């Protein structure tokens, strides 16, 4: 007995389909073979009765109707083997019979009235009233000068034919049963070939659900089952990788938090003890302020990422002068670049004022993070170039190109993943590029990274532009809103949240 499940359903469905098909075939076969046998018998008798009707014209010239042997000769002349021959008058009364049985009543089966009416080879199938035997009778009128004089009626038993038909039916049912059994066995094998892999996949996925992500689905499965197994294995692999990245992140963020906290704690305890001159006190307070800002930055980065993951990031939408934004970013990082003797350049190939619609502070966060990374991972006495160019479909492309250490091909596809860090010793949370990617997408833009190890990195950001007239209109509306104490609320198409 197959237990409940997909296996039983497969076997049951196969069984039902094949059973119904065989039942239909068996029914059609039985009807066709029965019809064939009955029609063969009827055609044989009908042809003979037609010959008898034609020959009767000659018979009446050879034998006189008043001759005592008239009906005897008629029976002998028109007889047919394995068939009872009856000679009836035009009233249906039996005048002679090859069985020498004289019926007391007229024959009233449907073939006789039809023959009286002149129908050639009229047929009736039914059971004999006296014996209950299934018979076929064929009646044909015998005419003399256009007048129905007699009726020749042939009666043959169908019991032997039915017996042969029953044997054929039993034989065909046996074949159908064998086919059904074979198909059932085949369907059980097919069901097992499907259910066993599913059970294996289910067992492994249950272990994964309990947190055992080191297990894998083994087996060379084909088609959808193979794809499902590969997907689950890939999922487990990605979960392991994500857990490893998360663990690395926790370790990294713990270190990042401990360092400024240690500095703050140390200088606060030192300053509390007193006895320092104003210069030393100023240095200590400065360090505390610097480390506090560093802590705030780390916490804000984590909060931003959390908001993005929960789709709770709100953007203050307005028009943004892209060139002014990039120049402001260059001023913000100029001192850091000067310390490492890195040259910053802005190359505006558009030669026009470019406006994008979005949140200026968030766009600044994106570009500032990318330029800061470029400085962090560039060698001394190198350069970083910000290239602005117009693209088709009213878009602007900003490329941040550096000649730094570059990123290996192995790490290039992962740098935008959350918590991923190429160099764990470089500090940070590994969330900067992931946040930047999502912020660019919120502005209906696209961010790509191209890099070659030892050569440098190019980060490309594609953003939609707004026309100058639209920008002026937004500025005018924004100024009016500001005068009224309202926030500028530009609403472009796209998945952007608003405050």
UniProtKB/TrEMBL annotation:
Membrane topology classification: Multi-pass membrane protein
InterPro entries, sorted: HAMP_dom, HATPase_C_sf, HATPase_dom, His_kinase_dom, HisK_dim/P_dom, HisK_dim/P_sf, Sig_transdc_His_kin-like_C
Coiled-coil parts of chain: none
Signal peptide: none
Membrane listed as a keyword: yes
Cell membrane as UniProt keyword: yes
Residue ranges annotated for the Histidine kinase domain, each copy included: 252-467
Reaction(s) this enzyme catalyzes, per UniProt: ATP + protein L-histidine = ADP + protein N-phospho-L-histidine
Residue intervals of the HAMP domain: 192-244
GO function terms (MF aspect): ATP binding; histidine phosphotransfer kinase activity; phosphorelay sensor kinase activity
Official protein name in the record: histidine kinase
Species, as recorded: Paenibacillus anaericanus
